[in-house]
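Page 37, continued from 36.
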């Protein structure tokens, strides 16, 4: 029987994780963008991504969440194997795991229509909001956690500049997004741009995940 070396196992895991990170992030953004264009009456500038899960064609976005979450967790496992010690070795994978799991369960936990009063929200809508809040609040945190490692690790220093930019963009967008969501029932200055603001958090973050995964794919053992 042919024996597979430990180095081979690590290489295979790295390749699998990298492809999971690249495919998951690219597919998710592509799917919700195309579905938003094709959905009658859907305005991506003012409407949240999760609202694509509502209605007869909602299964497309539900499946989109499930696929992203599953592939995100595969990517996370590879990252954890790669960063076994040093900065970001503990909290980096933990944050990614929480984000990946939150994406995964956001699929079957379908959101309510934006602006639904709290006392009229469904139980699954409430949980969708909780897990969605975890994704958005922890995304910039995870970026900065890994930047601490990238800044000092020679194998990853080429990502530190883009990681800093992604962290700044997602943080600023998150602050604006949080402000816009404080009064969801009463329209405010941000309301016509809620969808765009949300996408300004999630798209740069998933682009960062894609580049992180691509760098993992090309990293030499």
């Amino acid at each position: 029987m042919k024996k597979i070396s430990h180095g081979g196992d690590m290489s295979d895991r790295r390749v699998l994780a990298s492809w999971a990170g690249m495919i998951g992030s690219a597919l998710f953004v592509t799917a919700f963008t195309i579905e938003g264009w094709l959905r009658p009456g859907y305005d991506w500038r003012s409407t949240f991504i999760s609202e694509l899960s509502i209605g007869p064609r909602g299964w497309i976005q539900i499946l989109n969440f499930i696929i992203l979450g599953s592939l995100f967790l595969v990517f996370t496992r590879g990252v954890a194997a790669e960063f076994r010690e040093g900065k970001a070795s503990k909290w980096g994978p933990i944050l990614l795991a929480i984000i990946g799991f939150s994406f995964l369960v956001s699929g079957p936990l379908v959101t309510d229509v934006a602006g639904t009063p709290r006392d009229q929200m469904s139980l699954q809508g409430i949980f969708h909001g909780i897990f969605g809040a975890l994704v958005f609040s922890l995304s910039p945190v995870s970026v900065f956690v890994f930047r601490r490692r990238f800044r000092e690790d020679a194998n990853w220093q080429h990502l530190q500049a883009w990681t800093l930019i992604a962290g700044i963009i997602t943080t600023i967008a998150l602050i604006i997004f949080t402000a816009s969501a404080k009064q969801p029932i009463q329209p405010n200055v941000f309301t016509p741009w809620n969808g765009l603001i949300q996408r300004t958090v999630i798209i740069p973050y998933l682009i960062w995940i894609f580049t992180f995964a691509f760098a993992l794919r090309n990293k030499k053992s």
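The chain has one domain: 6-218. Flag for discussion at group meeting. Confidence is low (pLDDT under 50) at residues 1-5.
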